[in-house]
Amino acid sequence: MKYRRVGKYGIKVSEISLGAWLTYGNSVDARRTAEIVHAAVEAGINFIDIADIYAKGEAEKVVGLAIKDYTRSDLVISSKVFWPMSDNVNDRGLSRKHIMESVEKSLQRIGTEYLDFYFCHRFDKETEVEETVRAMSDLVAQGKVLYWGTSVWEAEQIERAVGEARACQGYLPAIEQPRYNMLDRHVEDAIMPTCAHHGIGLVVWSPLAQGILTGKYNDGTPAGSRAAETMWLTGHLNEANLDKARRLTALALDADMSLAQMAVAWILRRPEVSSAIVGATRVEQLRENIKASEVELSADLLDRIDEILGQPPSSRFKF
Known about the structure:
Blueprint: E1 3-5, E2 12-14, E3 16-19, H1 30-42, E4 47-49, H2 58-66, E5 76-81, H3 96-110, E6 115-120, H4 129-142, E7 145-151, H5 155-167, E8 175-177, H6 191-198, E9 201-204, H7 226-229, H8 239-254, H9 259-268, E10 273-278, H10 283-290, H11 299-309
Parallel strand pairs: 3-4, 3-10, 4-5, 5-6, 6-7, 7-8, 8-9, 9-10
Antiparallel strand pairs: 1-2
Helix pairs in contact: 1-2, 4-5, 5-6, 8-11
């Protein structure tokens, strides 16, 4: 496993990390979660990404149980705040009240005294950015959070956060977590340059486009797959995307790798990216994806990939 700095900051994360979205505490039980987390750590993954909204707190609980077998300082653990966790009108958003109360609940569920990263899980149009920045800065000052960041924020929103942090002499956002994959390159237009300018690291989610870039849907929708059991891929399993997936699959096989490995390696070609967050419901699946850390794509292969993608960086593949 290789490790990369997060932007201009000294902390290093494994270039492939493990995410808990839609899996742990939900479709994957605590026992299998522990098996996957243990396999990830043993393979060199040090960054595990969670959020309070994942399985309404259950993901934090099961991951917390799984990491008790390790020295806490050996790991980089994140969580997030924004989405409603109850019917309480204040149990949502990025107000100081919600941030301060949510971090305590996340720490308790995970069973840790601090979070390495704490993300604002979306931009809150109902809360002044200054209020959010001051609250996050206070958490850093208190030692409950080591670095704070944003998730799925636009470039101008990140700029506002940086400006407010400087104005109040607070801690600047250190990390952004956007969606990024071969079928969604929108971050290349403005978000990547903005983050690079401010020394903000990128840890990206959905590197495999919810499974489309594994090739599993090339010949139809398998029973038990995410597309068969959820609405996340509704509208995205169209012929244009599947044609690209089929052509990319053939290209990957010619290069003696899986499509998933090629897709993750393609993301890691960018120096702005600190880590690609992968999900896994089986240990074997995780180990297969981890091999992408050993892959370096040649200039010729990158050119052939671009020919297949045939799209400008601003094109979007939205969920």
